[in-house]
Fold this protein.
Amino acid sequence: MFQNYFKIAYRNLLRHKGFSFINIAGLALGLTACLLLGLFVYDELQYDKFLPEGERVYRVYNNVQSEESTDQIACVPPMFGTTLKEDFPEVETMLRIIMQPWEGQSLVEAGDKKMYEKGGLVSDPTFFQVFPLKFIYGSPEKVLDDPASVVISDKFSDRVFGTADPVGKKITIDKESYLVKGVFESNPKFHLPVNFVVNIARMQLEPERMKSWGWQQFYTYVKLKKGADPALLLSKFQAETRKQIDEETHQPFKYTPALQPLREVHLYSASFKYDQSIRGNITYVKALSVIALFILVIACFNFVNLATAKSLQRAKEVGVRKTIGASRGQLMLQFLGETLLLTFISVVFAAALTSLLLPSLNAFTEKEMAFNIFSSPGLLLLLLGLLLVVGILAGLYPAVVLANFKPVSVLKGGLAITNGPGKTPWLRHSLIVLQFSLSVFLIICAVVVYQQVSFLHNKDLGFNKDQIMFFEMRGDNMYKNYETFKTELLKNPNVASVSIGYGFPGDATAGDGIYITKNGERVSHSVTHLMVDYDYINTLGLKLVAGRGLSKEFPTDKDAAFVINETAVKELGFGTPQKALGQKMEWKMWAEKDTIKKGEVVGVVKDFHFKSLFDKMDPTILQIFPGANWKVAVKMKSSNVAGGIAHVKNVWDGFSPEYPIEYKFMDDNFEVMYKSEDKLKTLLWIFTGMAIFVGCLGLFGLAAYAAERRKKEIGIRKILGAETSSIVSLLSKEFLKLVLIAALIAMPLAWFAMRKWLEDFAYRIDIPLWVFGAAVILAGVVAFLTVSYQALRAATLNPVKNLRMD
Amino acid sequence: MIQTQNLEKVYRTDEIHTTALNKVNLEVKAGEFVAVMGPSGCGKSTLLNLLGLLDDPDAGSLVFNGTEVAHFSERQRADLRKSSIGFVFQSFNLIDELTVFENVELPLIYLGVKNPERRRRVEEVLEKVQITHRMNHYPQQLSGGQQQRVAVARAVVNQPPLILADEPTGNLDSSNGNEVMDLLSELNRQGTTIIMVTHSEHDARYSHRIIRMLDGQTIMTEVTADQAQVTLA
């Protein structure tokens, strides 16, 4: 019996090649999209799952409530960790990792090798208790207890020591000597980008500082004891923190601590500030999952539509089989089996296509996803599951329809199968409407995302980021003689200007308090501090809206002048830029205890976006503070940038030959800010294209069927004088109407979804109305082109032939 | 073998009710060859569909081999069809995707006959209808007469006691038509009961008895050949 079913299925497949192709291609593409996106989503969901007992590990972060929103800050004060460990018996182990105030590049030297390495973590010695990474050499037991020890990753070890066991070897990191005590296996699914770990004791932080409740500098993790209730722990800990007084504001502690499960760190921290972990975005993961589902649904609908539309051709067979004794169940099984066969072929194609495309997706997403069904029984099982789900989803309805045909009707020539005149094939039309709704929805989303991403890249940021070479100073000689270094840099004609400081656009900035006097009362405000020199404003091309920039001509500018931005004018309550001039400010200086810098506002600059456009503009203060002269921005003249770079390298070598120079250009900083959005944009276009293509394949098949079904009508119309164009319009109208209905359904949904997405950006586009019109026109044109091919073919056939065939 | 009493069938659309069969009373004995004749639309095909359990009657009784079958479930009807009734249609109704052999084999598959036996029986019946040389061909590759011979072979392969034929020669020329009628006569001689709907007086003469219908009712039964007897229904 099954052999017979298979035979019929196989021969039908060959006999109706066009329809088989449409079904297989549609399903295969849908499944490929689903598999590729599924792999991506699965990969994103795997972060930190490999860590044993990871379900007991939580990251402690802070919620900061402002008037408009709540911000999450990934770093917390050192006393959080200390208190949690000492006063809360639920905590088994606690770990703090200090946030690096720079990008985390360290100069590593071992033997004759010298290189910059990222991913150096300075942590409590409990690192490998909280994150039990697999050790290749050495043992995790007390491995970091000695402050002179370092534990390195296998990849780092390969780069520095080759394949030999490096345990016991010496290594110099930023000119400090360490002994390698262990090598752990790198895991791409670990949320921390780590190449080596050293003990925090090596930093010799003042014990007093480690008792701070205000120094937000530590990524802090706790591993709870078995059975401990994290919610209860958190509420007790929140109560404890409320008792603390912020030593700077002398007001109750304003941050609210929270716990984040370790396995949520990767996907649920997209909006966290000062987070240096490898972050994904759950919104994008969800969006891509929905798109994958959309494409699969569109492909399944194609199948349902084509199978029911084509059922007439199978009706006779159903009639005959029923007449000679086939039961409904047997027929359903047969047709379901056919769909499963078709789905199986599609799955095979999809698996091949996925293998083919995965390397490109890996390169694009910078992942190492694998798709090998032969070595992964789970994957094979998943494909089998997909085969059954898709096969049944797509095949069940047509199977029921076909198996329900009455032999008497169908053997007499199709009575009651086709929709009679004036009757609408509701299901088929509904499915087309749904398919095109999904397509129009995706088109609108793709265009809006494109618009927003273009906006991010092209918005006037209020400063000129072009041709600015940017690097961190290295070596004592350079730090101590930064003024001479700057003078030397300026000696080349290709260098337009140079600024040294801390707080350049696209790089790390510092948040700190500022004191002003309001109604006779000294109040503190949290602002961003940019530590600058006299050339900062000129180098970045900032625009002054009131007063003047910082200048050597005013000797007091060094110790008693502030330039603020327009947002600071507003938020500090100065009224207008003009009124801000001369306002007094005080700042508790870094490093030197209880030293207050007192000064006044000498200028106001137009707001400029030194952070990504996800973040709203902060009130910002520019001031001279040579203690933070760590970074250098060199503005090149466009005529000979290469010459300028060569000069900078020469000067560098004159000051710190022991350090190789590492530089980049400032605009690159901004490019990487929107990397995920750029990727989302590209993925959205690709998969929207796929969704439309798959939908059109189905429409193409249905149009062919409609043209076939209406051959007689077309023949009669032509004999009565209808022109080709009127026939094309007759056939196309029906489908275009459906596309229009689809657009009406999709538009509000897409508007809503995009508005939600745009809310994540502090600076965003207004969704332009033309996007909706364009999406409808695009969907309409694509549908028209798809249908009109078949319509034109039908309209140009000899009408006599059509009538004779009837 | 078959008795009907007041058998009725009404086709309903939204606005129109058409009575296709109106209280038909009929008896067909085992081994009989009965022809049903009448103008188009008189209800002969409807009658045949009801007798073949392809359609439900709206009222009345239908007894098959002593069992009331008018209200059989779909499964019971399917079981009865595959074991006891063979069908021959005007338009042959062969499955285009299956070869001659596979078409004839189909009823045996549904009956659950195992393969060596199935092959033997198919070959035997193909031999009987003289189409063995074409058994690996597809229906489209055969003439109309050959297709109908295959349809007859398929109808008899599971040796049903009853064959229902709906204008079996309607699509054939006279020579092919005669061949098919000879085949049906031969089957009848071997004991198979045959009920045949036809427009052709020529074909009807192959039967023992002709039932004439008009407007959904049987109006007359006449005995053919040497019996030359006419009775009013």
The helical segments of chain B are 44-51, 74-84, 100-111, 115-128, 144-156, 174-189, 201-204. Chain B has a mean pLDDT of 88. Chain B touches chain A through 30 residues (CB under 8 Å). Residues 174-189 of chain B form the longest helix (16 residues).
